[in-house]
Amino acid sequence: MIRRFQRLSLERQLFLSFFSLCAALLLLFTGLTLWLDISRQRHAMDGVISNTAAYVASLRPVADMLEQGYPDPQVRQELDAMSQTLSGLDVILVCDTSGMRFYHTSRQSGGETELTGDEGQRLQEQDSFITTGYSTHGEQRRAFHAVYNDGGNLVGFVMASVFTSDILRRGLVLACYSLVLLCVMLAAALALSHGIVSLLKSSLRGHHPAELLDLYLRQSDVLNAIEDGVVATDPVGNILFCNQAAQALLHTEDDPAGCPLPQLFPDSRCKETARAGAGSYNRSCTLGNRQVLTTELPIQGEEGGGVLTVFHDKTEMLRLSDKLSGTQNTLDTLRAFNHEFMNKLHVILGYLQSGQIDQAKRLIINSSLVSSQAVRETADCIRVSSICALVIGKMLHAAEYGICLTVTPDSRCRPEDLLLTETECTSIVGNLLENAIEELARSSPKVREIRLGFYTRSDCNIITCEDTGDGVPEDIRARIFERGFSSKGPGRGLGLAMIRDITQRRGGTIDLDTEPHTGTCFTLTFTKERS
């Protein structure tokens, strides 16, 4: 019942608002029009009496009659005919300079005129004037005009007047017509207001304004309660709506409505989605320091299309997954390391039982190059099990030759960021490390170290392998990637050729930095664009 009252109240408010506005405009228009009509009528009446007085004063018989000093019956007849002809004129009066009446429209009024007596003096200063005065018949609007003889001397004046009551009566008639017209227009405004409200209701598809307001508020609350970011844009990429989760991801404190989405989210494809009309789902992107899955869907509406962009923040999920997978990877690696360590103990036991004390000492010293701490750090940096196992295996293999193989502390390798397959990665890393181990084992430099760097992001992967060997001689640098070419003897030269093939197939690049008796560094770069 309350909702129905609110609904009807809002509809009534809309109806009354439209009707009140129309009524106010109509009243203002009618009042202004009525005032202009009355003013125009008053000016027109002033023109009639002024022109009549001027015309009568210009008649030669009238001037002769005043100069002779007695009324002329012929002049009286002409003036009577004129007063009967002119509509809206009440009185025509002809007097001499002393105010003696020579003609009056109503001859039965008798007596002297009811004038102020200063008309003659005023007419000596000006030929004509209009004023308002009183007579025995009431208030009049009077026009005076001077009459001159042939010698140019003032001999009298003519007055033409109309009663103010007649003017008021004409104004009242205009007011009645205006009132009738106003009523008609108010009725039309009433029908128009009802039609506008009905049109508004039909355009809202049967929903009442109160229902839409309540629906909008509820929808806003629901969208703001969603943990995923939701952004609606128009076909050119301008933001129409952005919930609170999206504002937090886009790092905007104020409502970004009207701002282009690509300006806040450079990886946005909202314009392409709007043009193509096809959506993209669960695209992995970086938004600031957050990893998000982006879904962009085209929206088709009656007033044009748009795009709905949904951001699913997977940063926390990846962090938890990272911890779980890292812990599991570390446990698996430690088990393998423990198994390998037990094998080493058996070998050492064999050396001791056979009396080969020096070999046992050397094996123990070299085994210390691979500590459990190094294994844990490697497992923490490289979260791809196959690659991690390969690297730790190479660490143990390098330790047999007294070589320290480490992974750079800032290395990061996660399965979801790889641009290559695990097989391709293990092939590249395995061949790089094997070549470096063979080089250090063959050359026996003072410092025997290998550093592996593995840096993966969703848009770029970089692999580096640096050793402290003798370097690549200048005369063979151009041929080291040729299949079958090797400085280590026949039947070799396949590892670097395989690395080159994978790199070319994936659109990557290989950079070689080497110095004699200092070392060599291979850097492989793969980008999402080219791979």
Describe this protein's structure.
The chain is an alpha+beta fold. It contains 15 helices and 15 strands. Residues 1-7 and 108-114 have low confidence and may be disordered. The longest helix is centred in the first third of the chain and has 57 residues, at 2-58. It has 3 domains: 17-170, Beta-Lactamase (2-Layer Sandwich); 227-312, Beta-Lactamase (2-Layer Sandwich); 318-527, Histidine kinase-like ATPase, C-terminal domain (Heat Shock Protein 90, 2-Layer Sandwich), CATH 3.30.565. Strand 9 and strand 10 form a beta hairpin. Helix 1 packs antiparallel against helix 5 (164-203), helix 10 runs antiparallel to helix 12 and helix 13 (385-399) runs parallel beside helix 14 (422-443). 51% of the residues lie in helices and 21% in strands. It has a 5-stranded antiparallel β-sheet, sandwiched between helices. It is rod-shaped, with a radius of gyration of 55 Å. Its EC number is 2.7.13.3. It is found in: Cell membrane. It catalyses: ATP + protein L-histidine = ADP + protein N-phospho-L-histidine.
Keywords summarizing the entry:
single chain, 531 residues, alpha+beta, Beta-Lactamase, Heat Shock Protein 90, five-stranded antiparallel β-sheet, 15 helices, 15 strands, 51% helix, rod-shaped, disordered N terminus
Question: Which stretches are low in confidence, meaning pLDDT under 50 for 5 or more residues running?
Answer: 1-7, 108-114
Quick one: overall form?
rod-shaped
> Could you state the order of secondary-structure elements as H and E?
HHHEEHEEEHHEEHHHEEEHHHHEHEEHEE
CATH superfamily of the largest domain: Histidine kinase-like ATPase, C-terminal domain
Query: What name is given to the CATH topology of the largest domain?
Result: Heat Shock Protein 90
Number of helices: 15
First-to-last CA distance: 65 Å
Q: Which whole number gives the mean pLDDT?
A: 78
Radius of gyration: 55 Å
Please bin the fraction of helical residues.
40-55%
Strand content: 15-25%
Question: Which secondary-structure class do the elements indicate?
Answer: alpha+beta
CATH architecture of the largest domain: 2-Layer Sandwich
Total beta strand runs: 15
Describe the sheet with the most strands. Answer: 5 strands, antiparallel
CATH class (first level) name of the largest domain: Alpha Beta
Count up the domains: 3
